[in-house]
Design brief:
about 230 residues; alpha+beta; NADH Oxidase; 4-stranded antiparallel beta sheet; 6 strands; globular
């Protein structure tokens, strides 16, 4: 037996369902996840920490390149820090809308009604700054390359969004560019690149969302079978 052979175990916890139940479960998940909408109008009401921690644990189960789990989630609840995040994000957004974005990009965003003002970054009870770890640090100070980092962090983020929705919370994926200011505010090392700023909370009373955001492609438009 090779000394490098991986340690294996029987597949744990897998459940196979009868076909009819499989179809029911898949349809039920679609019915639940289709209710998810990106929100920009949040209530300041705090959310239970236990809910956030459980959702983060779900995110941590995501598959990743070589199982290196190259992500870090920084949960921000401090009002002063949220204000600093808003100031940093709006500074980048003003440059984006004032000239960094192409006319085509701005045209694509127009149906969503977005602009450089991001009050939800302060109003929402918490922000989750998601960082992608480009490499890990060894005990001797050396670097260990991480593989498939964007793909891995993207899958984990998707798990997190689905878990938060399942728990009854609303989210917004915010990506000001560049986001390097988050490294300083969250005290994260150079090895980590800000990936997404996830806004989390309850919808404000009377919250509205753009009709455009709820229009999804039909199955035939984004799938093919060979």
């Amino acid at each position: 037996m090779s000394m490098n052979a991986p340690l294996m175990q029987p597949l744990p916890d897998y459940r196979r369902y009868p076909e009819a139940e499989m179809i029911t479960r898949a349809a039920a998940f679609h019915a639940e996840i289709r209710r998810r909408r990106t929100l920009r109008d949040f209530s300041p009401e705090p959310v239970p920490r236990a809910v956030i921690e459980a959702a983060l644990l779900a995110a941590g189960t995501a598959p990743s390149g070589a199982n290196q789990q190259p992500w870090h989630y920084c949960v921000i609840t401090d009002p002063a820090l949220k204000r600093q995040v808003r100031e940093g994000a709006e500074a980048e957004e003003r440059e984006f809308y004032a000239g960094r974005a192409s006319p085509e990009w701005l045209e694509a965003l127009a149906p969503l009604g977005t602009d450089a003002n991001k009050p939800f970054l302060e109003t929402a009870p918490l922000l989750i700054a998601i960082f992608a770890q480009r490499y890990g640090l060894l005990p001797d100070g050396g670097r260990r390359k991480h593989y498939y980092v964007p793909e891995s962090v993207g899958i984990s983020t998707g798990f997190l969004i689905a878990a938060l929705h399942h728990a009854g919370l609303a989210t917004l994926t915010h990506t000001p560019s560049p986001m390097n200011f988050l490294n300083k505010l969250c005290d994260r090392p150079e090895a980590e690149k800000p990936y997404i700023l996830l806004v989390v909370g309850y919808p404000a009373e009377g919250a509205e969302v753009p009709v455009h955001g709820g229009i999804k492609k039909p199955l035939a438009d984004f799938t093919s079978w060979k």
